Amino acid sequence: MEVNENVPYCFGGYYETIHISMVDKIVEGKNNPLIEIPKAKASPVDIKIAKQILTTIEDGSCLQLGIGTLPNLIGEMISKSDLKDLSIHTEMLVDACVDMYESGKVTGIHKKVDRLKMSYTFALGTIKLYDFLHMNPTCASFPVHYINDPDRICKNPKVVAINNAIEIDLFSQVCSESVGYRHISGTGGQLDFILGAFKSTGGKGIISLSSTYTDKDGNICSRIVPTLKPGAIVTVPRSIVQYVVTEYGIVQLKGKSTWERAEELINISHPNFREELIKEAEKMNIWVKSNKKDNY
């Protein structure tokens, strides 16, 4: 076991300490500074998406935020909003959670599991976050099998799980792990939290993505596609997809038919790709005559 005096002392839900008899060797390290993830500048698209997501969050919601610019941006917006009595149950604790707590937005009083606690598995951010965690009884670290258990997540009411995606098809299958056969990341806790939010009373699972991206050849491509690329991994199945948001809007897909989902997703795609998506939907027999093409 290495000793690093720069590491915060984090209280845990359980097993926050081990007995000295369980340690083979203790190494006095060089007290290297912790890795910091600096705050990235939000793009105009990020800001539009964050504003859309903010409209779905109610007083008393229990939040799960992931990694990246968007979660911290949402946290900043919440800190300046009129929202109150929010809770945190998340795999990853980020700087935004500190902002929300210090602004009085997070109290945890409506949690049914670990009431009054900001429960998490690991933390990654800046020194502000690490200093906040040190000897802070408000925060409780748990193993990932505890935090990411959908049956535990759903016990908290109004769970709002916010997760990014790489692409989504017109059937509403979500890919967050690969670009075709090229692996980008693991599943992480995305499926766990989307399912937990789906089962939570008043819960909302939110998939966010920009409407387009630029490929290596400089071509602008749509992230909303007729079908996922060959080899793409389905991270979240269509059966539990609820909310999808781009800079062009937010749609609720739970309980909707295949053709309704296709129409809703085309509505929030980039305008330059809507006509093409409609044509592909027609070929796939998921575009019906009652869909109003005049809107596109």
Description:
- With 296 residues, the protein is α/β, with parallel strands linked by helices.
- Helices cover 26% and strands 20% of the residues.
- It contains nine helices and 17 strands.
- The strands form five sheets. The protein has an eight-stranded mixed β-sheet, with helices on both faces.
- Helix 2 links the parallel strand 3 (62-65) and strand 4.
- Helix 8 runs antiparallel to helix 9 (271-283).
- The radius of gyration is 21 Å and the shape is globular.
- The termini are far apart.
- Residues 125-281 form the Acetyl-CoA hydrolase/transferase C-terminal domain.
Write the layout of secondary structure elements.
Blueprint: E1 2-3, E2 27-28, H1 44-54, E3 62-65, H2 69-79, E4 87-93, H3 95-102, E5 118-123, H4 127-133, E6 139-141, H5 144-147, H6 150-153, E7 159-164, E8 167-169, E9 174-175, E10 178-179, E11 182-183, H7 190-199, E12 204-208, E13 212-214, E14 220-222, E15 224-225, E16 243-246, E17 249-252, H8 258-267, H9 271-283
Parallel strand pairs: 1-2, 3-4, 3-7, 4-5, 5-6, 7-12, 8-15, 12-16
Antiparallel strand pairs: 8-9, 10-11, 13-14, 16-17
Protein name: Acetyl-CoA hydrolase/transferase C-terminal domain-containing protein
Domain Acetyl-CoA hydrolase/transferase C-terminal: 125-281
GO biological process, one term: acetate metabolic process
